[in-house]
Amino acid sequence: MRDWIARGVRAVYERVLRREISGVPTHVAIIQDGNRRYAREQGAEAKRGHEAGAETTEQVLEWCADLGIEELTIYAFSTENFDRPAAEREHLFDLLTEKLYEFADSDRIHEEGVRIRALGQTHRVPERVQDAIAYARQQTAAYDNLTLNVAIAYGGRAALLDVAQDVADGVATGDLEPEDVDVEAIESRLYDGELRDVDLIVRTGGDERTSNFLPWHANGNEAAAFFCTPYWPEFSKVDFLRAIRTYEAREASWRQTRTQRALALVRALGEGRGRRVLDRLGESLPDGTEPIEEAESSAD
To answer: Domain segments of the chain: what residues?
Structure first.
C-alpha cells in the first residue's frame, strides 16, 4: 500500500515538473556515479550495480528521445577506472561490449534515429570492446536525431594533452602554422566528429564535482550543473526533470545577467555608442530592451 501511494505521488510530481519545463538543453552529459555503493548497500557484488546502472542508461536515453534532447554523453569508463581490480574491469568491459551490440541492434535506437559513437582513448580497451564500438558506430552512422556519446577510457586532461601534442607535432612538421591554432583547430582534433557544447552536466551519487569530464565543451560553455544524491541505478525521471529545470533556471538567470550588462554598457557610453560597441563585440542588446531614457526611468 505504501509503495502504491509513493508511486502515485511520484507520478503526479513528474507531471507537474513536465508542465514547468518550457524547453530542454541541447546536450546533456551525465556522470553515472554510485553503481558500486548501490550494490554494496544491496549486499551484492559490484557487477550487479553496474548491470543495474546500465538499465538506467537505457531509460535515460528514452527520456532524451521523448523530450527532444539532441545529444547525450555518458561517462561509462574513465582513465582512472583502469586502476580498479582486474575482475571488476573485465566485467565492465564485458558489459560495455554487450550493451553496445544491444543498442546497435535495438529497434528503438533505429526508430528514434540514434547515432552511437565513443569518446576517449579507446585503443586502450580490449579488442572486444573496440569491435563493439566499431559495430555500433557503423550500424547507426546514418542517423542524426539524437547522438549518444559513450565516454570510454576517457579523461578530460588526457584528451586535451593529446590535442596539445598533436598540435605541437603539426607545427613542428610544418603542417600547421602557429597562427592557425584557433578554437576550430583544437575542436577538430578533440573528438572524431562534431561535439555540441554541453548545456547541462548531471552527477548522481552525492558528490558535487565534475571529475575532469568534457572540460572544453562544458566548462568553456559554462554549463549548468545538477548534483543529486540517488545512486545511478536509482536515478528516476523525476530526478532528470529536476535537472532540466535547474538548467532552465540557470539560462534565465544568465539571460538576465546579459541584459543587465548590456544596459550598463549603454548607460555608461550613451545609447548610440553603446549599441555600436555591443554590435562590434557580437553581443547586441536583447530583443525588447528599452531605450536608455525609458530604462532609467523605469528603474527609479
So the answer is: 24-235, 257-299
Q: How far apart are the first and last CA of the chain?
A: 57
- Binding region: 33-37, 50, 78-80, 82, 84, 203, 209-211, 222
- Average pLDDT for 117-121: 95
Detail the residues annotated as belonging to a binding site for Mg(2+). Answer: 33, 222
Region 162-183: mean pLDDT is 91
Q: Is the pTM of this model over 0.70?
A: yes
Between the alpha carbon of residue 92 and those of residues 37, 39, 71, 86, 159, the distances in Å are: 15, 14, 23, 10, 21
Residue ranges for the known binding site for substrate are: 34-37, 50, 78-80, 82, 84, 203, 209-211
Of 66, 81, 192, 239, which residue is the catalytic one? 81
Statement: 24-235 belongs to CATH 3.90.180.10: no
CA distance 118 to 134: 9
What is the average pLDDT score of the chain? 85
- C-alpha cell belonging to residue 126: 580490449
Question: Of 3, 33, 145, 162, which one is the catalytic site residue?
Answer: 33
Q: Is 145 labeled as catalytic in the residue annotation?
A: no
Which long-range contacts link 245-249 to residues 24+ away (Cβ below 8 Å)? 245/17, 245/20, 245/21, 246/200, 247/24, 247/25, 247/199, 247/200, 248/21, 248/22, 248/23
The reply to whether 219 belongs to the active site is no
How much is the pLDDT for 19? Answer: 78
- The answer to whether the beta carbons of residues 188 and 197 sit under 8 Å apart is no
